[in-house]
Amino acid sequence: MITKYFTKVFVRFNPFGKDAKTARMILSAIPPKQRTLGTKLQTELLKDSDSAGPIIKVTFKDKKEMEADPLKMTFQELSNYLDTHSRKLRLNKTIQNS
């Protein structure tokens, strides 16, 4: 997963639910160095009685936000989904530096 272009990651999940694995893997995929250099991580833990559903929301350097439901996607699917925009940003950066 290309996390270089993330500025903010918000993850809301039930730690005992089916969505926990995907949510935790997304959080662990962000390198510690990147966490200290500016990527803001926000987590919200849900209880069984909460009405809000799980969500993963990523904001990129160009202010684009992408959302996903960790119940409906595996980590690999979510990674591919987020990488589509990261690849566009990487291509734009490469073109600008040429």
From TrEMBL:
Coiled-coil ranges from the UniProt annotation: none
Cellular localisation: Mitochondrion
Molecular function (Gene Ontology), one example: structural constituent of ribosome
Keywords: Mitochondrion, Ribonucleoprotein, Ribosomal protein
A GO CC term assigned to this protein in UniProt: mitochondrial large ribosomal subunit
Top-level taxon of origin: Eukaryota
PANTHER family on file: 54S RIBOSOMAL PROTEIN L44, MITOCHONDRIAL, LARGE RIBOSOMAL SUBUNIT PROTEIN ML53
Family assignment from sequence similarity: Belongs to the mitochondrion-specific ribosomal protein mL53 family.
Protein known as: Large ribosomal subunit protein mL53
Origin species: Huiozyma naganishii (strain ATCC MYA-139 / BCRC 22969 / CBS 8797 / KCTC 17520 / NBRC 10181 / NCYC 3082 / Yp74L-3)
Classification lineage: Eukaryota, Fungi, Dikarya, Ascomycota, Saccharomycotina
